[in-house]
Each structure stands twice: as C-alpha cells, then as structure tokens.
Design brief:
By secondary structure, this protein is α+β, with helices and mostly antiparallel strands. The protein has three domains: 104 residues, no CATH class; 127 residues, Jelly Rolls, CATH 2.60.120.1440; 76 residues, Phage tail protein beta-alpha-beta fold (3-Layer(bab) Sandwich), CATH 3.55.50.30. Helices cover 27% and strands 32% of the residues. It has nine helices and 19 strands. A seven-stranded mixed sheet has the order 1-4-5-7-8-11-12. The N terminus is likely disordered.
C-alpha cells in the first residue's frame, strides 16, 4: 500500500466528504450543487483523497434510510449540536467499509478492541488478575498486562472497574488506565471513567485515583477521593459539577436522576439508542427525578412525557424530539 493510500485524514475533511456523498446520492443535485462540489474537490489534494475513500462505500449506503440521510445533512438548519451530527455521520460511515476512510476518523481501534459493547448494551467481563470490568453502552477497552504493571486502555465510552487482588502475581502490580486525555493510577478498589466531549471523567467509590493529564506519568495533577469526581483533559483537571445524574446507576441497568434538567437527561438517555434523541429549548429546563430501566428507553420517554406533560415526536426511530405537549 502506498504512503498516499495509507495517509490519515483530517476528521473534518472526512466529515465533509461523507456529507457530499450523502447529498449527491440521496438528493437530486442541480448545477449549482455540482459546481460547489467540484470547487470543494479542487480546493485541496486531501479533499480528493477523502472523496476517493468515501466513494468506495458506494452501495453500502443503500442500507441507510433516505430520511435519516437527509436529516443528517439538514441538521444544522434544525439546530443540531455537533455531537448529534457526528453520531449520525458515524452511523453512515460505519455501514460499510469505513476502515478505508482513515484511522484517525473511524472507530477502528474501538472496533478491534478486545472487549466492546454495542449501543444500548452493558457487558461485564473479568481480567486475569481478578478485576471485574463493566462496559457501558457503545464502549470498548483493551488490556495490556506484564510483569511490572496492569494497564487498561479505554478506547471509547465508559467503564466501571472493580480492581482485582492480583493474587497470581509474585509482586503487587499497579493498576493503570490510559485514556485519550492522559492516564490514571488506581488506589481505589472501585472506580469509574468515562470519555466525554469535554474531557475524561473519573469518579471513585473507595480509595482514590491519581490523574496524570497528557503523556506524563510523573507529574500528577490531582487525586480523586472516594465519593468525588473529576474531569480532566490533556492540559489539566478540575472538579466535575454534579448535574443530578447518579453516575454509577447504569451499572445496575438503570438511569437515576435527581432534579436533573430535562435537556441533560435526554443527552444521557441518547447514549443508549441509535440515531438522535433531543429536546426542544422550550422544555429544556424542566426537571426530571426518578429511576428508570435502560432496557426500554422508549418506555422511559413515555414515563417522563406523562409526568412532565411532554410530547415525544418520532419522525423515525433514528430521529426523536421531545417537545411540549399541546
């Protein structure tokens, strides 16, 4: 394979190429659209390369509902957040041979991870040292153990870790977790970490977890004590503000909220279903309290709609909006 063929592409350029593929495939392109596309294509060599890769998806896009594809393109007109747009584009990109798009854009490391879960699924597995790992929805991890240390690599999503006693090892090996924003060392028997849009969240139930932002494992930013949570990026860390969500509740298959803004609750619930789930600004500040079973999030929507006088608009099963009841 040539260097050009294996070149990693800017995710923004790949997103643009996917949008052009959907637009040209699902809409009747007029002359102005064609001219705009040709102009985009000629702007940079990377545009041509991205288009060549995306175009190889070809008929694989036939499996994507036309309405979903069009709503993806029209998302900005409806005020779609970037996270929602990327979620739908992710669905489109992974329908077929998405690995060809480039390793920096596609979820290839997560797809090839030793342990992973699908959207809406929670899984448990045990490591050789006795540690029990719980995967939340759409999550993936790898493990890399040697004689000196135990390393867990969070590829995507969220995990709860119950650290094992490591009785088979002749010496006590430290337990590390690597994330996109840095690494952490667990002195906690039970802790949680989650990949968020604004950083990596870590919380401890017992003991503490020491966080090392970026690539350094020598200068610790701070430690998270039992009962607390912290958000960190590659450049630093800060305490995480409680928004009313019980961070640990998904480990029991439920979502538990206490006086939580509806918009925040909907964002959390959207992690457990494909496509886009969003709420209108007019109802964003209504408050949700209660514990709901994640196994049936349509039922969760029905319950909160009844209690908060909401209307759940199912445009498709991939596109759901919560508004005020009329």
């Amino acid at each position: 394979m040539s260097r050009r063929e294996s070149q990693a592409l800017d995710p923004v350029i790949v997103e643009q190429a996917i949008q052009w593929l959907v637009r040209l495939r699902f809409d009747q392109a007029d002359e102005q659209t064609q001219r705009t596309f040709e102009h985009w294509l000629q702007q940079r060599p990377e545009h041509v390369l991205a288009w060549q890769r995306v175009e190889t998806l070809g008929d694989e896009f036939a499996g994507v509902p036309t309405q979903l594809a069009r709503q993806t393109l029209n998302g900005t007109q409806h005020g779609m957040r970037r996270r929602e747009s990327l979620k739908l584009l992710g669905i489109l990109a992974t329908v077929g041979t998405a690995a060809w798009l480039g390793r920096d854009y596609t979820p290839v490391p997560a797809m090839l991870a030793q342990q992973r879960s699908s959207t809406g699924e929670q899984r448990r597995f045990q490591l050789d040292d006795g540690s029990l790992i719980q995967l939340n929805s759409d999550s993936a991890v790898d493990s890399d153990f040697d004689d000196q240390q135990r390393l867990l690599i969070l590829r995507r999503g969220e995990i709860i870790v119950n650290v094992g006693a490591d009785q088979r090892s002749p010496q006590a090996r430290p337990f590390w977790v690597q994330t996109r924003d840095g690494v952490m060392r667990a002195q906690s028997r039970r802790f949680l970490t989650r990949e968020r849009d604004d950083g990596t969240l870590v919380a401890a139930q017992e003991g503490s977890v020491t966080v090392f932002p970026g690539s350094s494992q020598t200068i610790a930013s701070r430690s998270v004590q039992a009962g607390n949570q912290l958000l960190f990026t590659s450049s630093g860390a800060r305490m995480f503000k409680d928004n009313g969500l019980d961070l640990w509740s998904w480990g029991d298959g439920v979502i538990s909220a206490r006086n939580m803004r509806l918009s925040d609750f909907i964002v959390e619930l959207s992690r457990y279903r494909p496509g886009v789930l969003r709420c209108a600004e007019e109802v964003a500040d209504r408050r949700v309290s209660g514990t709901f079973q994640l196994a049936d999030n349509d039922q969760v929507l029905a319950l909160i709609a009844q209690s908060l006088r909401l209307y759940v608009d199912y445009r498709t099963r991939y596109w759901v909006t919560v508004t005020a009841a009329t």
